[in-house]
Write a structure and sequence with these properties.
By secondary structure, the chain is α/β, with parallel strands linked by helices. The chain folds into 2 domains: 2-182, Response regulator (Rossmann fold, 3-Layer(aba) Sandwich), CATH 3.40.50.2300; 210-391 and 439-471, pyruvate-formate lyase- activating enzyme (Alpha-Beta Horseshoe), CATH 3.80.30.20. Helices cover 42% and strands 14% of the residues. The strands form 3 sheets. It has a 7-stranded mixed β-sheet with strand order 2-1-3-4-5-6-7, with helices on both faces. A 6-stranded parallel β-sheet has the order 8-11-12-13-14-15. Strands 9-10 form a two-stranded antiparallel ribbon. Helix 10 links the parallel strand 11 and strand 12. Helix 4 (76-88) packs across helix 5 (102-115), helix 14 (368-381) packs parallel to helix 17 and helix 20 (479-492) runs antiparallel to helix 21 (496-502). The longest helix is centred in the last third of the chain and has 19 residues, at 440-458.
Length: 506
């Protein structure tokens, strides 16, 4: 039985450059392969050579392009999707669903069923897990997988193949006539080493991925913290892979794709000190020079852990700063202080680690003064790169519930809403009323001021030079990435004529 797993088009529609590959689908492909099924992954953002901008100052406006493409059945990407789906002739189609791209999930299911009407469609992922009922309302969707599906997915494939009993599959939502049935949740796998490794070999169009793209990995699942804006699909208990399992995957990826730069996507990499120290020791013993980036928290950093990670190949580290306002920072339930942020910044600078600080604006009770405090704190903390996002409410979070109580959000909008609404505005009853104490006009002005200030900070020559230097080992192993980064860097600072020259245009 042949399986086609699809990550719907999203960034390519918006004109945003896409990194990496869909790791969740690769885990499912690995599980399906182990169970004896032939599986392919169609990542629509990499179905053609990757293009797009790395300048996020106009991100909100870029989603107008996404909405236009989403609703154009003749768009080349939709035509390509249908052609590739037919060429694969799958017996089952699976689609991964994130909240921001749920409109694309709806359309992907529609167009797949249009050309392959008898092929069952499964939808899984974070959004399917938080809103399985809404996901099941998509007419073309037959099954919804909730939560961790490494074990459930092969069981469902077996049941489809054998026309078996779906009622015994934990974590499954399915339709019986007009009725939607939700089976009990599946207990998370306790031994991550027993799960199949991600099958990168299942990726279609491998030529459109760089060696760095192939280096995204997980060493753990779960996060013990209680941030009010974050949905915990893996809940607040952290499960760890063994060092041997992680090293096995790293060696395999290096051998097959010449990857030396790995991106560790754990929610907070340094939660368990012994895990990090053991991994770093193993990294240093590898027969090649490994570099890696990771995400963690400022209160999980100290002099020793940064030194050990740097010696093991740490090239870039990201932390959440969120807000320069003490009151708003408190509302995120991140349980950190500005003093801890500044201490971590000093340590990272001391060790010469390129670091990113993530900020956000637009929380429901935020004031103009709070937003301007965030800009002031960017200049005080001085991350080498400052990421700025407008708060996006996700179902299942504390802030989402707060938004409902304040009358700002709609708990379950109709499917049609996701096809015509900017992904940053999903669930808002009125996108022009997303912050209680700031008018829409003024919030738009403040967003533009912040966006331009962050762009100016990030495009500073010294910050750009620091990023290039931090990635020197990547460039030594893969000169194509150096050329790509140079082109994207010039684009980022607005030197389009030089980009055109490098591409041979006149």
């Amino acid at each position: 039985m042949k399986v086609l797993l699809i990550d719907p088009p999203f960034r390519s529609f918006a004109g945003i450059f896409s990194m990496y590959f869909p790791l969740g689908l690769a885990y499912l492909a690995g599980a399906a392969k182990r169970a004896g099924y032939s599986c392919k992954i169609l990542d629509m953002d990499a179905a053609e050579a990757k293009e797009g901008s790395v300048d996020f100052t106009r991100e909100y406006q870029s989603y107008d392009n996404y909405i236009t493409a989403l609703n154009d059945p003749m768009h080349p990407s939709w035509q390509l999707l249908k052609r590739l789906a037919v060429e694969q002739q799958p017996d089952v189609i699976g689609i991964t669903a994130l909240t921001t791209k749920f409109g694309s999930v709806i359309q992907t299911a529609k167009f797949c069923k249009e050309v392959l009407p008898n092929v069952p469609i499964i939808v899984g992922g974070a959004h399917a897990s938080t809103m399985p009922g809404l996901t099941a309302k998509i007419p073309e969707v037959d099954f919804v997988m909730r939560g961790e599906s490494d074990e459930s997915f092969p069981e469902l494939l077996d049941a489809i193949r054998d026309k078996g009993d779906f009622s015994k599959i934990a974590g499954l939502t399915y339709k019986v006539g007009e009725k939607v049935v939700h089976n009990p949740d599946r207990v998370f796998a306790q031994n991550l080493d027993a799960l199949a490794l991600p099958d990168r070999g299942a990726l279609m169009n491998p030529e459109n991925y760089s060696s760095e793209d192939m280096g995204v990995i997980l060493t753990s699942r779960g996060c013990p913290f209680r941030c009010s804006y974050c949905f915990h699909m893996w809940e607040r208990k952290v499960r760890y892979r063994s060092v041997e399992s992680v090293i096995e995957e790293i060696k395999e990826v290096h051998e097959k794709y010449n990857t030396t730069q790995f991106s560790i996507k754990d929610d907070s990499f340094t939660v368990k000190r012994s895990h990090v120290l053991a991994l770093c020791e193993a990294f240093r013993k590898l027969p090649f020079k490994l570099t890696f980036n990771c995400t963690t928290r400022v209160d999980l950093l100290d002099d020793e852990i940064i030194r050990v990670m740097k010696q093991a190949g740490l090239s870039q580290l990201s932390v959440g700063i969120e807000s320069g306002s003490a009151e708003i920072l408190k509302q995120t339930d991140k349980d950190i202080t500005h003093e801890q942020i500044l201490k971590a910044a000093a340590l990272l600078n001391k060790h010469g680690v390129f670091w990113t600080g993530y900020f956000m604006i637009g929380l429901p009770t935020e004031t103009e003064e709070d937003i301007l405090k965030t800009l002031k704190f960017l200049r005080k903390s001085k991350p080498h790169f400052g990421g700025l996002g407008v708060y996006n409410p996700f179902p299942g979070t504390k802030l989402f519930r707060q938004g409902l109580e304040m009358g700002l959000l709609d708990a379950e909008p109709p499917l049609e809403h996701f096809l015509h609404t900017n992904p940053k505005d999903l669930f808002f009853k009125d996108p022009q009323r997303r912050v209680a104490h700031i008018s829409h006009k003024r919030f738009t002005e403040l967003s533009e001021i912040m966006s331009q200030a962050f762009h100016k900070h990030n495009s500073n020559f010294f910050n750009l030079a620091r990023r290039l230097f931090a990635r020197k080992h990547v460039y030594m192993y893969d000169r194509r990435i150096l050329r790509r980064d140079l082109v994207k860097g010039l684009e980022f600072i607005g030197l389009k004529k030089i980009i055109d020259f490098l591409r041979g245009k006149r």
